Here is the input.
Amino acid sequence: MIISVRGLRKDFTVRAKAGRFRRERRVVSAVDGVDLEVERGELLGYIGPNGAGKSTTLKMLTGVLVPSAGRVRVCGLEPVARRTRLARRIGVVFGQRSQLWWDLPLADSFELLRHVYRVPAAAHAGRLARCRDLLGLDEFAGRPVRQLSLGQRMRGELTAALLHGPEVLFLDEPTIGLDLVSKQAARSFLAELHRAGDTTIVLTTHDLADIERLCERLVVIDHGRVVHDGSIEALHARYGSRRRVVVDLEAPLAGPPELPGARLESVAADGLRLTYALTGATAGEVVARLAGAGELRDLSVVEPDIEDVVGRLYAAPTGVP
Amino acid sequence: MGFVIATETAARQATIWSHVRICASLAAAGFRRYSTYRQATIAGAATNITFGLLRTYVLLAVAGGTAAGLAAGYDRAQLTTYVWVQQGLMVVTLIWGWFDLGDRIRSGDVVIDLLRPVPPVLAYFAADVGRAGYAVLGRFVPPVLVGALVFGLYRPARWYTVPLFVLSAALALVICFAGRYMVNATAFWLLDTRGIDFAWVLASGMLSGLYFPLRFLPEWFTLTVWIGTPFPSILQAPADVLVERVAPGPTLLIVAGQAAWAAVMMVACVVVQHRAERRLVVQGG
Amino acid sequence: MLPQLVLSDLQLRKVSRIVLGAAVYVGALVAADLPWTPARVALAVVAPVAGTVFFTALFLVGASLTFWWIEAAELPNSFTYGGRDFTTYPVTVYGGWFRGLFAYGLGFAFVAYYPALALLGRADPLGLPAWVGWLSPLVAPVAAGAAAVVWRFGIRHYRSTGS
Ligand SMILES: Nc1ncnc2c1ncn2[C@@H]1O[C@H](COP(=O)(O)OP(=O)(O)OP(=O)(O)O)[C@@H](O)[C@H]1O
Ligand SMILES: [Mg+2]
Here is the structure.
């Protein structure tokens, strides 16, 4: 286990104004008993609605925030006590923050990081060359960071987080605010990194396309608690999301047929388009039965939509889907 | 046994050496960072020169008004040198106007600093040394040259005065850095640090000898402030060393006092940082 | 826009500074035991007002300069705060080209030094005639005019470059 978390909690005391002079102290449990085990080489999606406690968890995993309770081990180290030592073995990208030297050219930041992390020159050059290729850095590597666009900077951030060859990469919303092209670039880069196999990646994002494209395993948290831990398929199964069959008919049927193993979800106003959710039957069976009942003009099979599931998950009260 | 100890020592030496190298590259980055702002350097140096002229004329008027032409024991050349060296030193030590750390704490960007494999105090200090190096070229030399051209400066009589001044200025930088760092670090505890910033500006302006040499004040007061606070060690001490205001023995005492304050302040700084990390609440998601 | 910017910066500390300054000024005038004539009274009232206008104009010029030199924000300090320090002492303290530039070129001598000479009925050791003191409040409208021009140009420059 490269990451092992037991009963992790973080309580914040917030002082809110209550009335004119009174100030009320309230305790917010940002992270409320999280258990998590991550194997070396995994790519984990860590998602949840705004304020769920994702960033707070990552801060505790990287050692910059002291947990209120619980046991954390990352690369076998206790993050808070061994923060500077752990720093050599992990890479971090916070989407809204920069670890680059603002006033210096991007290339200078990379060179500086080589010294700061004491990376052998050859290893550094190799990793940098790979990032340059995959992320197309050459175009802007000579420009001061403050003059880079968000997308360009984010490519720089990803590179900066990887130059010392970290065992674990923590990414907190790395694709926030990026356009499609930059998002694609970041995703294929991460996919490539994951395929290479020796970097463990923990990814936090609100972009579900990132998740669908990249993550086999998904941990969903809400109000500081883990509400799902498993594959995307398991999530679909658990929340009853189904594949659908949509057929267009030549002529409306007298009454749309009830089919075993499929549930009629909707009938278009003109009666020509029927949508069935598959509850056991295969798409082929459903299509065959419908073809027996009337002439089909067109048909399609719709995969379950992750937005849908996650939307329902987030809307549900804590822990109860 | 001996073997184990030997390897441990070797390992420790390797760590120290690598820290030195890391600090050197951070210092170089600090130097380059400030050198990208040419306009600001010129504007700042011009401002120092204006204030240097103002202060020199006022202090010379004070000296001219006395029978012996001395002001608190400084002659004309000493006063002039005092003023111009301080105009440069206040930028080299950056006695005012450093908010980097406080701003990063408030915005939460300080997490990035904490995620480096170098202790934050060390990393910030290294960068500050680089900044000071640039300030020597861009902000110390120009006003001192102008002072020399317009008024003429004091020529030290003792051979070791200039090296001792360099040491004294370096200690001043350490003391001032630690002070600034702690003032900024209060942002870990307080959301609004303006009161503390203001107190620092006031105390460091009055007690460092920037507005006027502390020796203008009663001796018991000067002595108390000098021993009891770090401020005179920041500007008054290096200037007094350079103009040879006191005999060799007391001059060495001044520098020794600076060394003591530098040690105290740095230790305090590390302790403050450690405390902060233990109760750290990083702002922002 | 300008009044808005100015008022937003007004604080209690600054108000108390004004009150203190006014108290010292009145106290000094009383202590000097001057032969009061209508002209003296008028000058005693007008001089601080003119000084305020003059410095306001100067700070405005300083702020406008950053339209051109954003990085050089520290430069105006040399004539705003520097000018303030300059006017605290009699101009005879200064010498050489520096006195020429600050006292007469930028006009700081006319803010406090010459009005004070006129109020006290003293002759100028630097040799300017006595009426200079009585006319010195006129630097205020001159400075205000100059500031208005610089500010306008600054705004126009800002709009055209957008930086
Ligand atoms: N410094 C703090 N002081 C008080 N409360 C905090 C602090 N930081 C976070 N919180 C609270 O903890 C909870 C979790 O915050 P966190 O930033 O971890 O959420 P998140 O899952 O990252 O959300 P988002 O998707 O919006 O980034 C929120 O309710 C937040 O208000
Ligand atoms: Mg977050």
About this structure: The two ends of chain B are 50 Å apart (CA to CA). The pocket of magnesium ion (ligand 2) is lined by residues A 54-55, 172; B 285 (CB under 6 Å). Chain B has one domain: 2-278. The CA atoms of residues 105 and 187 of chain B lie 6 Å apart.
